[in-house]
Amino acid sequence: MIYIFHPYFTAPLILLFYILHNPSSKFLQTISIFTSFLYFLLATALIPWPDFGSYWLITLYPTAFIFITILKIKNFRNLPSHTKISILNIIFLVLKSILLLFLINETGRYISTFKTNQHQTFRIDSPLKGGIFYIHQGGTNQITNYHNSGYSSKFAMDIDKINIFGLLTHRFNKNENPNNYLIFRDTVYAPCCGKIVSVVDSIKDHGVGSKNNFSVYSNQIAIDCEGIVIKMLHLHKKTAMVSVFDTVYSGQPIGLIGNSGFSSRPHLHIEGFISESPNHAVILKFKGFPYPVRNMIYKN
Ligand SMILES: [Zn+2]
Predict the structure, then answer these.
(1) What's the pTM value of the predicted model, to 2 decimals?
(2) Together in a domain, 59 and 152
């Protein structure tokens, strides 16, 4: 089901409303500016921007908000100080208050995604090198990480690769061919020293976005690093460079990025859990980078 309150859908409408609506008093205008500020801050953080074309569209709402707010502040002095108490004003204020409470709640949920100290964390090296990488799913909360309902994959991350224009693909038009994606067939490196505990590499890769062809199983490699299993999914068929029981060192090439299993476009899924208790997920942090949540990019 489509989540109709996702900023993805509501942000353009709220932006249009913000442009057209001129509150009738200084008080209402202040509330309007404050709630819109909160809303666009949240929308900017939550929308998976490369899905729309370029990552750099991330500047769209903040720029629009600043521009429109400057125009609104210019007229601020001409507005009356007192709000006339009419039925319409009361309805409007109640609606704004509900929106404000909803926004404060969602902002709180978003901030809580950075609170990692209640869970076990494990530091790893980036499994990808030689480019700019984009965190599409990541964090300890469902609003930035759809994996968050799962057990072992509770704190999993989905990583894409973008170019300096913020695009996922070589060409602007994204079609069914996985070869168009910058990350496709990129080398995956062991993110820690350990022992290989599982390798699957016989699954056929499928086209982009073709959900009907999804296979249940992904090509995957799992490494046991000091009792923490790091599992990487959606690898390319017949590209595993390691076998079960092999010992690997951090930074060792182990396979190539593909589009196998439950994956709508080539990317890397990486998750960590306790070896002896696979339902117990651990948070993964890259050495030298801040905690990865949606819309973080890093160069490695
Ligand atoms: Zn994933």
Answers:
(1) 0.91
(2) no
- In this structure, the number of other CB atoms found within 10 A of the CB of residue 142 comes to 12
- Please tell me the distance from the alpha carbon of residue 194 to that of residue 276, in angstroms, as a whole number: 15
Q: Which residues of the chain have pLDDT under 50?
A: 1
Residue 251 sits in a domain whose CATH number is: 2.70.70.10
What is residue 62's predicted lDDT score, i.e. its pLDDT? 96
Same domain assignment for residues 201 and 243:
yes
Number of domains in the chain: 2
Which helix H or strand E contains 188, and what residues bound it? strand 187-189
Tell me, in angstroms, the distance from the centre of ligand 1 to residue 103's CA. 27
Quote the ligand 1 centre to 71 CA distance (angstroms). Answer: 43
pLDDT for the residue 114: 86
**So what's the pLDDT on residue 210?**
67
- Measured CA to CA, the distance from residue 273 to residue 227 in angstroms comes to 9
pLDDT of residue 184: 96
Neighbours of ion ligand 1 (CB under 5 A): 158, 269
Ligand 1 midpoint to CA 208 (Å): 15
| Same domain, residue pair 159 and 181 | yes
Ligand 1 centre and the CA of 30: distance in Å?
Answer: 41
In-domain check, residue 1: no
Structure token pair of residue 217: 């199983």
Quick one: which of 174, 235, 168 has its CA closest to 201?
Answer: 235
Alpha helices in the chain (DSSP H): 7-20, 26-46, 60-74, 87-112
* 268 DSSP β-pair partners: 159
* Residue 2 within any structural domain of the chain: no
Centre of ligand 1 to C-alpha 156, Å, is 6
Cβ neighbours of residue 179 closer than 8 Å, sequence gap 6 or more? 185
Asked if residue 280 and residue 177 are part of one domain, the reply reads: yes
**Token reading at 276:** 């002896």
Q: Which of 264, 263, 268, 240 lies closest to 183, judged by CA?
A: 268
Instruction: Give residue 209's domain range.
Output: 121-299
